[in-house]
Amino acid sequence: MGDLLVPEDFTVATVDGVRVVFTRAALGEEVIQFEWDGVRDAATDRRDLQWEREFDAWGNAVKAHGHDVAGPPPQMPGNLLARVQMSVSDDSGKQLQKLDGQVAGSGSEWHAEWRHALPANGAKRLLLRFAVDGASSAACELQIG
């Protein structure tokens, strides 16, 4: 993959007090991958601590009563990054197809990455539009050619 130049420290959204920054765009053989992170600070630290308490309580409930009674584990706090949506279009206005992605996980608690189909041959720029829960939050342009 070849990295594209992204705006430095570019805030794409703030979600429930967590600032989300665009960190990477990379061209691959068949896809283009976009990444953003929740900025670690007191807000994320509080959420992480609360999740650890809830997860421990859930683990104790599983031990005491089994999975059926304990129910599903608590969601990781970084899952709030899934509320950030992005649309991508090339310089002709054609939308790039979103293929897949992931948000949060062990070792990537405050990280999201999404893959889109490559733009048509000849595209020189991409327009990225970000939103939170459908409300526009930011936009930027990337040079690809």
| Main sheet record | 6 strands, antiparallel
Mean pLDDT: 93
**Weakly predicted, low-confidence segments:** none
Note the beta-strand portion.
Answer: 35-45%
Element order: H for helix, E for strand? EEEEHHEEEEE
> Radius of gyration from the CA trace?
18 Å
3D shape: elongated
Number of E-state strands = 9
Which bin fits the share of residues in helices? 10-25%
Instruction: Give the N-terminus to C-terminus distance in angstroms.
Output: 15 Å
Main traits of this protein?
145 residues, alpha+beta, six-stranded antiparallel beta sheet, 2 helices, 43% strand
Structure, explained:
The chain has helices spanning 42-65, 67-70; strands spanning 2-3, 10-15, 18-27, 31-38, 84-90, 98-103, 111-117, 125-132, 135-143. The protein is 19% helix and 43% strand. By secondary structure, it is of the alpha+beta class. The longest helix is centred in the middle third of the chain and has 24 residues, at 42-65. The chain has two helices and nine strands. The model has no long low-confidence stretch (mean pLDDT 93). Strands 1, 2, 3, 4, 6 and 7 form a six-stranded antiparallel beta sheet that branches.
Task: Describe the SSE topology.
Elements: E1 2-3, E2 10-15, E3 18-27, E4 31-38, H1 42-65, H2 67-70, E5 84-90, E6 98-103, E7 111-117, E8 125-132, E9 135-143
Antiparallel strand pairs: 1-3, 2-3, 3-4, 4-7, 5-8, 6-7, 8-9
